[in-house]
């Protein structure tokens, strides 16, 4: 009993320290974003504990940020990420369902190919792919921003592994009752797969929300710029408002954190099933 209690206390302390170490940089960004202009550097050389205390903080950086082009970039990011989730799931769901339930020659090869391609960093092919998109007149368009992220191999992997965990007897009984393949998918499989759908949706969202190189290559006009590009454009050759950059960085960081915290249970459950069956 003593060992168990001691181990619990030790793990709790270790977990608390890790949480503080992860949260502290984000807290520093928030505190720095409340300092007007570049005054946050006053407590950095040398480093002072005042750098982590929001005393005398202001919201001028946020008001200035939200009255500039960053708002349009934020809207574009939400729009592109939302469209990517919608159309990405429309592609990933039938692909994963076919790989999980249908028996056909080469199924393992197809699945292995999807996983291998998903492991290739997208930035490695971004530049030649952007040349193709320019030839297809898809540069500086929402379609050009959305299309490369739709066929997400990790989303297909998560859904396929979750579908494998659904009892085959349940799906066979549904098909015998006359639902058919798509009816079984719509009425039986998808209602049971909400955690996997949320997990795959979060992967699609994060792939677009944190993207920088591809939007930089494709979304060239201010009307098509995503939030990370709009944030980077706050730094020019003549002016650098680090306060607004800190505010924008905090906004871009806190939004996916809120979503992950809100869907933490479903997201964790979707990932915990990925290694159950091969």
TrEMBL record:
One of its GO terms (cellular component) is plasma membrane. Residues 74-263 form the ABC transmembrane type-1 domain. Its main location: membrane. The chain crosses the membrane at residues 7-30, 70-97, 109-130, 142-163, 184-206, 242-263. Coiled coil: none annotated. It is a multi-pass membrane protein. Belongs to the binding-protein-dependent transport system permease family. GO terms for biological process: transmembrane transport. SUPFAM superfamilies: MetI-like. This is Multiple sugar transport system permease protein/putative chitobiose transport system permease protein.
């Amino acid at each position: 009993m003593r060992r168990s209690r001691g181990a619990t206390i030790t793990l709790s302390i270790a977990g608390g320290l890790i949480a503080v170490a992860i949260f502290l940089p984000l807290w520093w960004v928030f505190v720095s974003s409340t300092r007007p202009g570049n005054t946050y550097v006053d407590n950095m050389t040398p480093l002072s504990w005042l750098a982590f205390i929001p005393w005398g903080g202001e919201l001028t950086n946020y008001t200035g940020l939200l009255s500039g082009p960053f708002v349009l970039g934020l809207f574009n990011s939400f729009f592109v990420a939302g469209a990517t989730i919608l159309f990405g799931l429309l592609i990933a769901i039938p692909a994963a369902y076919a790989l999980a339930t249908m028996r056909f020659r080469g199924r393992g090869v197809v699945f292995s190919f999807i996983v291998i391609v998903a492991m290739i960093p997208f930035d490695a092919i971004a530049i030649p792919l952007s040349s193709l998109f320019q030839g297809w007149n898809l540069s500086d368009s929402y379609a050009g921003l959305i299309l490369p992220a739709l066929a997400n191999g990790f989303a297909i992997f998560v859904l396929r592994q979750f579908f494998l965990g659904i009892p085959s007897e349940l799906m066979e009984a549904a098909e015998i009752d006359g639902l058919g393949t798509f009816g079984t998918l719509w009425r039986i499989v998808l209602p049971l797969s909400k955690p996997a759908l949320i997990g795959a949706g979060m992967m699609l969202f994060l792939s677009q929300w944190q993207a920088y190189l591809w939007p930089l290559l494709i979304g060239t006009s201010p009307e098509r710029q995503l939030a990370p590009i709009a944030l980077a454009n706050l730094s020019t050759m003549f002016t650098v408002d680090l306060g607004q950059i800190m505010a924008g960085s905090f906004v871009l960081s806190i939004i996916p954190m809120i979503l992950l915290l809100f869907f933490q249970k479903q997201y964790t459950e979707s990932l915990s099933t990925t290694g159950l069956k091969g």
